[in-house]
Amino acid sequence: MEVDGEQILQRKHSHYHNLDEVFMVRNEVYKGQQYSQIYFARLHMLRTLLYSLVPHWKPHIPGVVVAFLGKESGAGSFLVHDILEAGLPPQIEKPLKLGDDKYVVFVSGLSVGNSTSNPLQFQLLVDHITGHLGDENEQRTAAEIVHVVIAGNSVEFARGLFNGQNLGSKDQAKLSEPFRELDILLTQIAAGVPLDIMPGPNDPANFYLPQQPLNRCLFPGSSAYNTFRSCTNPHSFELDNIRFLGTSGQNIDDLDKYSEAKDKLDFLERTLRWRHLAPSAPNTLGCYPFTDRDPFVIESCPRVYFVGNQDMFGSRLVKGPEGQLTQLITIPKFCETGVAVVLNLRNLECHALSFGTQFSF
């Protein structure tokens, strides 16, 4: 399309389907005594059995379901030869073959309100997404951005405000200022690009997983657009028949307490092969006490599995024995690194997008 000899770039679109219903807490009945008995049996009886069967194997991650391969000895004991994990879940959906490039932008750890937060970096990110930054080639790339995902920790408040006392008018203004600033910037994005925002451990949401969507009244400007969606954590959705699954990072950070793995991508791959998003819950990771279902079970292998609020960007393509193909992504904290992540839906390739505000003379 051209107007007065100038080419007007049309933004691309994609088909979106939200799959967060499984993570919504509605009409749940807590049966405390029943849950406590199951929890006690799993922790004490089963763990003792595992150690007695395999003394040299330490089940560092509680809650992981495994199978023991072996045979019964003459003395009546069970000799274990191998321990089998569930493996990658089946991958049902087949994504459409996309002929054109379409991009999804991931960002986490904006921490608006933090003393180290750089508003200029965030504004540069917004301008890039909306096509107000760079030359014609940059604007053409921006027109191919079809979705933005903010994976938790969007705001941060001064700890001194939460001292158990009533807040004065000045402190109340300090409490609302981070959200006011965040809403102004998100409104610019939502005006042109579909936007999903997930709660994180520092956001004003429930502590336990699954975290419920942030109240839309916190975003009076951006929530006026139907492109703005406040989502759960974990968050699951489909774009052009490509399934996404991700968290704001609590499940992966908690696994650090049990494992010596140096790469967070190893944690992502393990939870995928264990078919469970949060195996350490409720031991050391808070979660809602579901009694008749487990929303963290991964029944279908996603094409993209992302985790926010990590120290650095990383990606890994995992292939399964039945043709499963999953792109693992760790999203760094934008407040500390100035880095967002861009994923191409056409080939699942991703790269880091860095914004710097330092000038050299």
The top level CATH class name of the largest domain: Alpha Beta
Total number of domains? 2
Distance between the amino and carboxyl termini: 41 Å
The whole-number mean of residue pLDDT values reads: 83
CATH structural architecture of the largest domain:
4-Layer Sandwich
- Share of residues in strands: 15-25%
Biggest pleated sheet: 6 strands, mixed
Radius of gyration: 23 Å
Poorly predicted runs of 5 or more residues: 1-5, 33-38
Q: What's the total helix number?
A: 7
Relative helix content: 10-25%
What order do the helices and strands follow? EEEHEEEHHEHEEEEHHEEEHEE
Q: In which order are the strands of the major sheet placed?
A: 3-10-11-12-14-13
What's the CATH topology label of the largest domain? Purple Acid Phosphatase, chain A, domain 2
Global geometry: globular
Please count the beta strands (DSSP E, at least 2 residues each): 16
Structural class: alpha/beta
